[in-house]
Amino acid sequence: MSTLKTCWLLLFTALLMLSSCSRAQETVTQETELLKNKKVLIVYLSRTKNTKALAVLIHQKVGGDLVSLELVTPYPDHYQTTVDQVATENATGFLPPLKTKIDSIEKYDVVFVGFPTWGMQLPPPMKSFLKQYDLSGKTIVPFNTNAGYGIGSSFETVQQLCPNSKVLQGFSTKGGKERDGILFVMEGDKEKQVRAELQDWLKKTALIN
Ligand SMILES: Cc1cc2nc3c(=O)[nH]c(=O)nc-3n(C[C@H](O)[C@H](O)[C@H](O)COP(=O)(O)O)c2cc1C
């Protein structure tokens, strides 16, 4: 083989290796009919980052825009003060104003909504979000973390606040237990387990192949 041919062969092999390397680092988006040509938004509320971790894992699977729900006036750092404030807000129906603004919500077809359970309910900021934005005609996909007491009424409330949307079966897993000083748990074996459970759930809801 001539030297020129060998050079071309080497260059071609190097380029091939480079391109497969960069592809491996890309976000894996496995589109199904439900997501084909659809615009995805993933909105989440997270205090101790467990729900955020779910949101990031879902984002790796389905792509789209990932948005953290932030408040005009954040909740206190102190756990019990926050629990008491949330109890009052839930009792009075107060909807905390959101600092986060979503540009042109109408452009999205599928909206994932992620939240922890607070006081066995949907947290007030997520109620604010669902009341503030018109999600009619969109597919809504709820996901949740909680301290082990479950989702409470949170998924039902999502359904009630989105009467003209198609609300899919939600995903929930045990997260932290701030009351007992257990904050972030989505690492190591737990993260691996959640990753596999999310994969199964997304397949069941036909959001990925
Ligand atoms: C104000 C407040 C109220 C909570 N209420 C509940 C509850 O009713 N049931 C439950 O299982 N966990 C409850 N938790 C625990 C959280 O749902 C759990 O730690 C969750 O994983 C936190 O998610 P994050 O890390 O995304 O903030 C509460 C936590 C806070 C801060």
Main sheet record? 6 strands, parallel
Structural class: alpha/beta
Mean pLDDT, as a whole number? 90
Amount of beta strand: 5-15%
Characterization of this structure:
The chain is α/β, with parallel strands linked by helices and 209 residues long. The protein has a single domain, classed as Rossmann fold (3-Layer(aba) Sandwich), CATH 3.40.50.360. It is 40% helix and 14% strand. It has 6 helices and 6 strands; from the N terminus they run H-E-H-E-H-E-H-E-H-E-E-H. Strands 1, 2, 3, 4, 5 and 6 form a 6-stranded parallel beta sheet that branches. Helix 2 links the parallel strand 1 and strand 2 (65-68). Helix 2 packs across helix 6 (188-204). The relative contact order is 0.16. Mean pLDDT is 90; it is low at 18-27. Bound molecules: flavin mononucleotide. Flavin mononucleotide is lined by residues 46-52, 79, 82-83, 86, 116-120, 145-149, 152, 175-178.
In brief:
This protein is 40% helix and 14% strand. It has 209 residues and is of the alpha/beta class.
